Amino acid sequence: MQITLKLYATLSDLLPSGAVKNAAKISVDEDVTLNRIIDQYKVPRELAHLVLVNGHFVCDTDRDQTGALVEGDVLAIWPPVAGG
Prior knowledge:
Blueprint lengths: L1 E6 L15 E5 L6 H7 L9 E4 L2 E2 L16 E5 L6
Parallel strand pairs: 1-5
Antiparallel strand pairs: 1-2, 3-4, 3-5
């Protein structure tokens, strides 16, 4: 199935070639976990601070569950942000 992967800030360099505006269409298995995608795209897990599926936060403990994604979903990942 096809989803959109969005990586922000320093993570955007990890997107596949052809990515536009921090986003790339990717193909994933239907039973894929979020952590498997995070690992596949070499995003260090400690830098996958804010993980959203269609704008809804997914906590660390739920990222190993299968069935979290369906065709057309958007997976967005932000690193921790420093500053005031």
